[in-house]
Amino acid sequence: MKKTDAIAMLLAGGQGTRLEALTRENAKPGVMFGGKYRIIDFSLSNCFHSEIYTVGVMTQYKPLLLNRYIGNGNAWALDKVNQGAYILPPYMRENHAEWYRGTADAVYQNFEFIKMYDPEYVVILSGDHIYQMNYRPMIEEARKKDADLMICVRRVPWEETFRFGIMNTDEDLKITEFQEKPKEAKSNLASMGIYVFKWSVLKEALEKDHQNPESENDFGHDVIPTLLEEQKRLYAYTFDGYWRDVGTVDSYYHANMDLLDTREDLDLTNEYLRVFSNNEHRDPHFVGENADVYNSLIADGCYINGRVSRSVLAHDVVIEEGAIVEDAILFGNVTVKSGSVVKRAIVADDVVVGPNETVGNAEGKITLHIGGGQS
Q: Do the Cβ atoms of 282 and 298 come closer than 8 Å?
């Protein structure tokens, strides 16, 4: 097969336990976002804008919906000749089958796929982050500096450094030290989980990691510290745009709400970084003459006769006359009956909020309503 300069390996097998019921039947990257998108749309769209048309998508937990959604990558214009999006689940080997044991192991188990393309660089991505980015300048910077590994970083508040892998660098952004979720950080440059590896370096590093029985087979915990010990050329690449890890109900809620603010760093229809999705074609939404809709995102097929304020509604949501929805996220096929109030809540797919029922509250913890109860 013709050699290509870069392919992407997209980690999309996470269970997303902190998202609770939202990932009960779906992997985290497949969760709805912004009414008409899914979280994985961001990484796939970024690959298209970066002219990376070969993407291996490593799935594991509840993969059916995600596999069907991605298909061959056509919705993101990745389906070029001998290229596209490829679903890569764990599979039976010569004498055994095993799950992906960690982020590094997931890539290691798919070496045969990477070898088919024999790229100069392998871009490792996570499928559960909200951001818009062209990876091409990062790849070119890696080539310019002859980096064995380039790690995308952003500055985070000092009080949040304990949540991230932290990079300490010299003036040229060469990484001199890596701290995995430190109690006392020496820097606030946090890894975004976006890596540009030389393929030759990645291959050698993961083969060594696989042979180490004490390794957790994780890039941040094992592979990166080992490469630093071996004095490989590791560099940081700074990113100052919008980025959010939507791993918790609270962060997921606020990322959706960010779409309702006017901000230049999160524009899903941006001419150069537009986010694409693989949604089914549905009927247009309908807003009744007595309805009141303010600063909200309303997806296809919705039928609105009540009041909707600062909310995100997925497809085929029905808001009856006299119902109030404020500061809320409603998944597909939700019905809010007359007289009901939904405030500061996330309502899961296919839920019916009964007449005169109240879900959530104006203050405090975000309510996750899944029908027959709430968390």
A: no
The answer on pLDDT for 192 being more than 60 is yes
- The answer on pLDDT for 94 being more than 70 is no
Phi/psi of residue 154, nearest 5 degrees:
-145, 155
pLDDT tier, 279 (very low <50, low <70, confident <90, very high otherwise): confident
Q: Quick one: three-class SS letters along the chain? A: CCCCCEEEEEECCCCCHHHHHHHCCCCHHHCEECCCEECCHHHHHHHHHCCCCEEEEECCCCCHHHHHHHCCCHHHCCCCCCCEEEECCCCCCCCCCCCCCCHHHHHHCCHHHHHHHCCCEEEEEECCEEECCCCHHHHHHHHHCCCCEEEEEEECCHHHHHHCEEEEECCCCEEEEEEECCCCCCCCEEEEEEEEEEHHHHHHHHHHHHHCCCCCCCHHHHHHHHHHHCCCCEEEEECCCCEEECCCHHHHHHHHHHCCCCCCCCCCCCCCCCCCCCCCCCCCCEECCCCEEECCEECCCCEECCEEECCEECCCCEECCCCEEECCEECCCCEECCCCEEECEEECCCCEECCCCEEECCCCCCEEECCCCEC
pLDDT confidence of residue 61: 66
For residue 325, give the nearest of 259, 289, 337 by alpha carbon: 337
Mean pLDDT of 96-104: 70
- pLDDT value at residue 186: 93
Tell me the backbone φ, ψ of residue 16, rounded to 5 degrees. Answer: 65, 50
